[in-house]
Specification:
globular; five-stranded mixed beta sheet; alpha/beta; 14 helices; Aspartate Aminotransferase, domain 2; binds pyridoxal-5'-phosphate
Amino acid sequence: MHFDTRAIHFAQDSDPTTGAIASPIYQTSTFEQEAPGVNKGFDYSRTSNPTRQTLERVLANLEGVEYGAVFASGIAAENAIFQAHLNPGDHVITPTDVYGGTFRLLFNVYKPKGYHVTRVDLSDEDALIRAIRPETKIIWIETPTNPKLLIFDIEKISAIARAHGILTVVDNTFASPVLQQPFALGADLVLHSVTKYLSGHSDVIQGAVLARDPEVFAPIKYLQNATGATASAFDCWLTLRGLKTLSLRVERHAQNAQKIAESLDGHSAVNKVYYPGLASHPGHDIARRQMSAFGGVLSLELDTDLETTKRFVSTRKYFKLAESLGGVKSLICHPASMTHAAIPREERIASGLADGLIRLSVGIEDARDLLEDIEEGLDEFVIRAKKREFVFSGAE
Ligand SMILES: *Cc1c(COP(=O)(O)O)cnc(C)c1O
């Protein structure tokens, strides 16, 4: 079975008792037992639920592995990985512009309890090797990153990790298994914020961990029940529904993003377009090798100040001002004041996240409408503001 067929058929046969084509929602907390401890494989929904189990099997299958655990959020899934595979004194390496929530979890929750974290430019092989210590247990890869869309070579980094006995985790949220298959490139674990492309309609918060090796997976599965951040049956059902159009959606997201990136590259109001599908992007060649298309997220650095940027993002017609990404409806966000607000300003600027940086999650609307929405805003705010500046400085 090929990917698109598996998304619809794998583990999703018609219901044997009723013939229902859609997988049922097992909206139940508990299960009747014939005798104490004798049941049909389920006893309590925190431990295991048939709808959740179906989703776990489908997600693992789409990533090309055997094991999956679904959590109440992407961050809960990340926390299970860290709790399962780190002890106090252990060390984690993440990319420099790691997702803000991952940064917060590691630096504000784990670090004060005696864990060590280093952020490294993962495209610099020597810097990565220098950062490895005897107590390094996890190299956390996120590719493409948020919001600069940096690309890291999963195959190369996981080979380095393996040579040092370190686990490689790939946060595959931005690419989705449609565009990138980290296990084929050597990853040990894949993390998803299911909230984004996998569920795909901005109506679910959910996370998942996928694994190939049962020994790496077992402590994560144990923590899913033991710490209890499990996903509801209804949310799992929504994700199963979303997955059936994952491939179609991601293809359109990527086409639209490519069109917008190409059209705005070189625009007089835009200093820089960050999109791995542009040949000028520093990660373009690696992205072409390890991804089948370049995804639906791109960032623009507007040639203007903080206030004008805030006005620009607040007044778009189709790009709704909101955190998150990966839904059918286009979203716009301002990392400096939203997703990356947890990172101190000096650090943020130093890592290249300017005040004028905006991130687009390009939806599956008609690309012409989306482009018009952005171009109108550039004209109305950025270009006019520049003209005013010119007039003022001319009057001096
Ligand atoms: C959103 C996101 C997360 C966190 O997932 P939640 O579902 O919001 O908890 C982790 N990594 C990336 C790359 C994300 O975009």
